[in-house]
């Protein structure tokens, strides 16, 4: 990508000057993922690395809830979100008041909340989960019932992996809910069965029923890198396949392309601008920061 070179060069120089680190989600565009990102990964790894970093400035090449999580774990650091409009349909589906009502309706039932939520929602929760650790975290909770919110499809998948009774909410990811079981069956037919289908647990149940493997974006990556299937269909945001294809030249990626409009708001230009001005900064209301940190840290402690 030669026309990106001046921007990449300027970003990497400013990163050194500002002692900044760029965390990029697996759905970021290749020209960000493979050039200026210091740490790349799924939501769980980005939260872990945000908790460990000794940088003064954190730039989140991802979406707003990821930057909020980084701020909650590092209240004294500058956390930059290159485009404040990079949201998430799951985070928008539930409010702190909704969680308070759920607690009244299900007294004593632990509330496990997906990291794809606002800090206010996290602060009302007992623990956070990601798609990479949802089953493990939920299994670690007391009792045989759990509220797994706000993603109805992640909750259904968790319910299929645990004996606990799982209650949920009606949120969904606008990217993953667009896939369908018949669409996957048509791909299998097109390639006469010679295809490995890997799906994200934010997909509806009929999609997951057609998949050979279900996991978070990091688990998808591990599966592809470990097993080197001949032909793969990644049922998730399609930049993920572009990023994986770079390091797995022997794997053929079939690419149905569902893009996340929020992830796409992050560009090399707005990363450079945020590092230049140290704006826009993500701030978290002091009244919720401790509660949100407690829920995230409880999650990070599981499996350590
Ligand atoms: P993971 O990378 O944790 O699997 O999350 C996927 C996602 O949709 C993030 O917004
Ligand atoms: Fe949210 Fe879905 Fe986009 Fe992830 S892919 S940020 S869950 S809308």
TrEMBL record:
Catalytically driven reaction(s): iminosuccinate + dihydroxyacetone phosphate = quinolinate + phosphate + 2 H2O + H(+)
Cofactor requirement: [4Fe-4S] cluster
Positions with a binding annotation for iminosuccinate: 25, 43, 114-116, 131, 200-202, 217
Localization, UniProt: Cytoplasm
Gene Ontology MF annotations: 4 iron, 4 sulfur cluster binding; metal ion binding; quinolinate synthetase A activity
EC number: 2.5.1.72
Keywords: 4Fe-4S, Cytoplasm, Iron, Iron-sulfur, Metal-binding, Pyridine nucleotide biosynthesis, Transferase
GO biological process: 'de novo' NAD+ biosynthetic process from L-aspartate
Cofactor note: Binds 1 [4Fe-4S] cluster per subunit.
Residues binding [4Fe-4S] cluster, per UniProt: 88, 173, 260
Primary location class: cytoplasm
Any one cellular-component term (Gene Ontology): cytosol
Pfam families cross-referenced by the UniProt entry: NadA
Entry-linked PANTHER family: QUINOLINATE SYNTHASE, CHLOROPLASTIC, QUINOLINATE SYNTHETASE A
Function: Catalyzes the condensation of iminoaspartate with dihydroxyacetone phosphate to form quinolinate.
UniProt similarity note: Belongs to the quinolinate synthase family. Type 2 subfamily.
Descriptive protein name: Quinolinate synthase
């Amino acid at each position: 990508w030669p026309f990106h070179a001046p921007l990449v060069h300027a970003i990497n120089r400013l990163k050194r000057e500002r002692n900044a680190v760029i965390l990029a989600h697996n759905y970021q565009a290749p020209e960000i993922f493979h050039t200026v990102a210091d740490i790349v990964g799924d939501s769980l790894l980005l939260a872990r690395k945000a908790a460990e970093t000794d940088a003064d400035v954190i730039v989140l090449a991802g979406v707003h809830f990821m930057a909020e999580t980084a701020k909650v774990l590092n209240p004294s650091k500058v956390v930059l979100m290159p485009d404040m409009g990079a949201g998430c349909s799951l985070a928008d589906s539930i409010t702190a008041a909704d969680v308070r009502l759920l607690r009244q309706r299900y007294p004593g039932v632990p509330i496990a909340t997906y990291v794809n939520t606002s800090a206010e929602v996290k602060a009302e929760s007992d623990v956070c989960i990601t798609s990479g650790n949802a089953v493990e975290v939920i299994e670690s909770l007391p009792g045989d019932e759990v509220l797994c919110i706000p993603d109805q499809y992640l909750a259904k998948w968790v319910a299929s992996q645990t004996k606990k009774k799982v209650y949920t909410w009606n949120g969904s990811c606008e990217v993953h809910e667009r896939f369908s079981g018949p669409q996957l069956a048509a791909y299998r037919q097109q390639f006469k069965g010679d295809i490995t289908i890997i799906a994200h647990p934010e997909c509806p149940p009929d999609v997951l029923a057609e998949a050979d493997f279900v996991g978070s974006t990091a688990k998808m990556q591990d599966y592809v890198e470990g097993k080197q299937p001949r032909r793969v269909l990644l049922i998730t945001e399609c930049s993920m396949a572009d990023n994986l294809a770079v390091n797995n030249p022997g794997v053929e990626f079939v690419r149905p392309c569902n893009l996340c409009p929020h992830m796409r708001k992050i560009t090399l230009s707005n990363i450079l601008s945020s590092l230049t001005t140290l704006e826009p900064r993500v701030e978290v209301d002091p009244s919720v920061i401790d509660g949100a940190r407690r829920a995230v840290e409880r999650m990070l402690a599981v499996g350590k």
